[in-house]
Amino acid sequence: MAVFKLDNVEDLYEIGNVLGSGHFGQVREVRERSTSVLWAGKFLKLKKGAGSRLGLERKSVEKEVEILQGLQHQNIMSIRDVFESRAEVVLIIELIKGGELFDFIAEKENLTETEAIEFMTQILEGVSYMHKKNVGHFDLKPENIMLSDKLAPNPDIKIIDFGMAHRFILGEEYKSLGGTPQYIAPEIINFEPLGTAADMWSIGVITYILLSGLSPFQGDTDEETLRNIVSMSYEFEPHHFSQTSNMAKDFILKLLVKDQSKRMTADECLIHPWIKPLNRTQIAKRNRSSINMKSFKKFNARRKWKMSFNMVSACNRFCRMQLQCKARGPEQPELRDCESDQEDTGTKPASLLRRRLSSNS
């Protein structure tokens, strides 16, 4: 069971500056009064009632909290405290200052496969631990892979955002249609029973992007992207993979497998020759190979631009809806539509995309 405190968060933590904001609340820097340790406070608005569309369902927050409280690993964001009031829930979580891994890599002039593997190993260790705890993340993507502190000599990877995570129960069948189109596994699109193997597909996509600067299934539209995933339509383009070792390609091939039962597990990835070479020849080949930095920098710039565009677009839509709500007045039935926070177009639910895909087939 998730543990919530009814204390006033300000009695135990000094509330600091805003670090970020989203549809359902904001993240602020907080200082623990008893230790002076800095944390991040995630202030989340709760729905006021069953009919309200503004805010989060308490049960969804409770699910995320319960999962995080059961995960204690250096490569997974930690949670310190949870406070609950009538209007909001406050999660006191680890303050992660290093930004996104992909942004950190994009600042470099070059990166060998060996250096990239140091980051991949940490990601896999975090995922392996999570899966041994019967937890699937279901939203692994560059935005959710952070660095503890990019100024540190050997920064720790931190996997964040467990809002879509699920803890499996023995004998339970779990299905979901959520996720970010270019990273979701085919079994999600096909609405098949899911397992932790769906995360491993996402690891394969992330590795492909990291090495080449290309997204393997990305189409001009979300519908095209989903079709490419279901049809396994991808290749190692020579121009972008000319500097990539065959071991790295083999690693990706064993993750981007349609049959989830044949996909490598996180533990199997950790002993794959690309991650853990068996001899000096393999080490030498890996050291001579590097990621395509020119292409990777372009991918990351497009990714950041799209995130910024989507955020501005969502804010503009929300502001317009607020004005419409005020103009209509509280008695208008359409007012209920104005309560809802707008969907971030960068992470459209796969259920909507799948319906569009079906209607266009």
Number of helical regions: 14
CATH topology of the largest domain: Transferase(Phosphotransferase), domain 1
CATH C-level class of the largest domain is Mainly Alpha
- The strand line-up of the biggest sheet is 1-2-3-5-4
Strand/helix succession: HEEEHEEHHEEEEHHHHHHHHHH
What does this molecule look like?
The chain is of the alpha+beta class and 361 residues long. The protein has 2 domains: 9-93, Phosphorylase Kinase, domain 1, CATH 3.30.200.20; 101-297, Orthogonal Bundle (Transferase(Phosphotransferase), domain 1), CATH 1.10.510.10. The chain has 14 helices and 9 strands. Helix 4 packs antiparallel against helix 6 and helix 7 (222-230) packs across helix 14. The model is unreliable at 309-315, 317-323 and 330-361 (pLDDT under 50). GO terms for molecular function: ATP binding; protein serine/threonine kinase activity. One of its GO terms (biological process) is intracellular signal transduction. It comes from Phoxinus phoxinus (Eurasian minnow).
Which tags fit this structure?
361 residues; Phosphorylase Kinase, domain 1; Transferase(Phosphotransferase), domain 1; 2 domains; globular; disordered C terminus; ATP binding
